[in-house]
Description:
Blueprint: H1 7-33, H2 39-57, H3 66-87, H4 93-120, H5 122-127, H6 134-157
Amino acid sequence: MIWGLSTAAFTELHVIISLIGIGSGLLVAFGLIKGKRFAGATAIFLVTTILTSVTGFAFPNQHITPGIVVGILSCIVLAFALLGRYMFHLRGAWRSVYVIMAMLALYFNCFVLVVQLFEKVPSLHALAPTQKEPPFGIAQLAVLLIFIVLTVLGVRKFRPVTV
């Protein structure tokens, strides 16, 4: 039992929150490269991405796992994204800080998604059972390159009117 839920129900909740975070994050990324704020999607993305880390910390572990490290890094990155967006209202350098941190948080979620896909989807697991095989590395490299491009485009094109 985790937070009063069976482990299976808690895992399902964690996955649903994570997928909402990824989906809304992709919408935010699209908005960034189109110079649009998408305030609602941004709020959903930030909240669900924080909840992804918080729920991830609740899983029982005997030691610090790579997932916990990614969750800690994500929380730090999200703190800066929140500061840039809501406290400093994207003024000055905080616009770029927000874009970079938001995209980094989304990248972390997508990185973990690829890890989980290679662990849980039988056909992918067969290609990279230890996640040290080339298909896994190629998939992660592709995700990284996509996020580098999205981040650079976002920093260049996201110039919203500040409030």
